[in-house]
């Protein structure tokens, strides 16, 4: 952790040191409200994905606006949010190993805890941990609906796992996890719609197969920021797990908007400063790989179409500057990260601003919670 903070509440925006992770509170709050409005009056609930922000203050605001709880990816993340007062947490991942299960199971004494499985050995481990700690865990069968990552095939394999969960002591079969990650970033709205139509068909068929075996399927959960309107309207999903909508990164911003898609705003920025201007063709800023993730491509330079962020090293970012671009040593820029989730994980706190003034610093308390 740095011995210095980039800013303090009350500081003018132009005094924020660089590099720093900034949150535009006005845009952020509009994003929260737009998601709440998009689900209002429908038989579907929001379980906001907190892996995007790792910040309890944001999670509490999401719950205050109607989210049933949050998702996260690791037992360590779950522990941070339970400690902060979140009462319903789903770990949208498989949790393997005695050490991890010993940490996960006791959280169910303070909150409703869910977890995913795609193998009978995982069910066995969860049952043993639940019994050892005297708790009940919600268990979801993860179904591969197109992501080709984790998850059993739709249909019979899911039925077998559901039966094993129902028979496991201390376990409650809670439903199906049906998340299609790659569909979130298909650029055309038609491609996204088609991918989720196929996912919903697989999810619906699996739900019917489990119900035919005499097992109730309370929840079909999934969806993300890029596709949630399609899961919302599918008639199959009754919970969505969107997370990036609170920030909107450059990659999501590159999606072409379809009819009915919700227009979320960029709210998350990396503030950076020009540290070298050795040639007219380039400027070097102090935000490199350790300040902004580039796994989904380079960040965009906010409101400067004449500038392009073209290369990142550990501590340096290269900005291509046409001869006409006005940029001098010490000038500051705002970058829109290519991928918000891993970018947030690089920082200890969010510098939250409204207008031209810093309003608050919010700890990114689940940063680095990899276990």
SSE arrangement:
Blueprint: E1 20-24, H1 25-39, E2 45-49, H2 56-64, E3 69-72, H3 75-83, E4 88-94, H4 98-104, E5 112-117, H5 120-133, E6 137-142, H6 156-167, E7 171-177, H7 189-212, E8 219-222, H8 228-232, E9 239-240, H9 250-253, E10 268-279, E11 282-285, E12 300-301, E13 308-312, E14 317-320, E15 332-336, H10 340-344, E16 349-354, E17 357-363
Parallel strand pairs: 1-16, 2-3, 2-9, 3-4, 4-5, 5-6, 6-7, 7-8, 8-9
Antiparallel strand pairs: 1-10, 10-11, 10-15, 11-14, 12-15, 13-14, 16-17
CATH architecture classification name of the largest domain: Alpha-Beta Barrel
Domain module tally? 2
Compute the average pLDDT: 97
From the 3D structure, determine the CATH topology of the largest domain: TIM Barrel
Summarize the structure.
The protein has 371 residues and is an alpha/beta fold.
Description of the structure:
- This protein is of the alpha/beta class.
- It folds into two domains: 13-22 and 264-363, D-serine dehydratase-like domain (Lyase, Ornithine Decarboxylase, Chain A, domain 1, Beta Barrel), CATH 2.40.37; 42-248, TIM Barrel (Alpha-Beta Barrel), CATH 3.20.20.10.
- Helix content is 28%, strand content 25%.
- The chain has helices at 25-39, 56-64, 75-83, 98-104, 120-133, 156-167, 189-212, 228-232, 250-253, 340-344, and strands at 20-24, 45-49, 69-72, 88-94, 112-117, 137-142, 171-177, 219-222, 239-240, 268-279, 282-285, 300-301, 308-312, 317-320, 332-336, 349-354, 357-363.
- The strands form two sheets. Strands 1, 10, 11, 12, 13, 14, 15, 16 and 17 form a nine-stranded mixed sheet that branches. Strands 2-3-4-5-6-7-8-9 form an eight-stranded parallel β-barrel, surrounded by four helices.
- Strand 10 and strand 11 (282-285) form a beta hairpin.
- The longest helix has 24 residues, at 189-212.
């Amino acid at each position: 952790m740095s011995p210095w903070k980039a800013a303090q509440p009350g500081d003018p925006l132009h005094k924020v040191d660089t590099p720093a992770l900034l949150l535009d509170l006005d845009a952020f709050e509009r994003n929260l409200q737009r998601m709440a409005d998009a689900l209002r009056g429908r038989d579907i609930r929001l379980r906001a994905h907190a892996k995007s922000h790792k910040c309890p203050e944001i999670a509490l605001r999401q719950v205050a606006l109607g989210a049933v709880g949050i998702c996260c990816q690791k037992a360590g993340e779950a522990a941070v949010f339970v400690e902060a007062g979140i009462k319903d947490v789903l770990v949208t991942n498989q949790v393997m190993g005695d050490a991890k299960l010993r940490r996960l199971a006791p959280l169910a004494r303070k909150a409703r805890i869910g977890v995913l499985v795609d193998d009978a050995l995982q069910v066995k481990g969860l049952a043993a941990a639940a019994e050892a700690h005297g708790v009940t865990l919600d268990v979801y069968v993860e179904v591969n609906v197109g992501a080709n990552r984790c998850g059993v095939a739709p249909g019979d394999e899911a039925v077998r796992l559901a039966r094993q969960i129902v028979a496991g002591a201390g376990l409650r079969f809670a439903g199906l996890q049906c998340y299609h990650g790659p569909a979130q970033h298909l650029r055309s709205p038609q491609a996204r719609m088609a991918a989720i139509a196929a996912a919903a068909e697989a999810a619906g068929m699996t739900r019917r197969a489990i119900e035919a075996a005499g097992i109730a399927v309370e929840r079909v959960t999934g969806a993300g920021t890029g596709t949630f309107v399609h899961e919302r309207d599918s008639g199959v999903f009754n919970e969505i797990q969107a997370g990036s909508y609170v920030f909107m990164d450059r990659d999501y911003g590159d999606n072409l908007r379809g009819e009915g898609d919700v227009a979320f705003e960029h709210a998350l920025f990396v503030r950076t400063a020009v540290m070298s201007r050795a040639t007219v063709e380039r400027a070097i800023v102090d935000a490199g790989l350790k300040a902004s993730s580039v796994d989904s491509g380079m960040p965009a330079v906010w409101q400067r179409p004449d500038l392009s962020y073209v290369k990142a090293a550990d501590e340096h970012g290269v900005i291509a500057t046409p001869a006409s671009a006005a940029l001098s040593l010490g000038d500051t820029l705002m970058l829109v990260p290519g991928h918000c989730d891993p970018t947030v994980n690089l920082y200890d706190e969010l510098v939250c601003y409204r207008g031209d003034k810093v309003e608050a610093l919010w700890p990114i308390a689940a940063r680095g919670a990899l276990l």
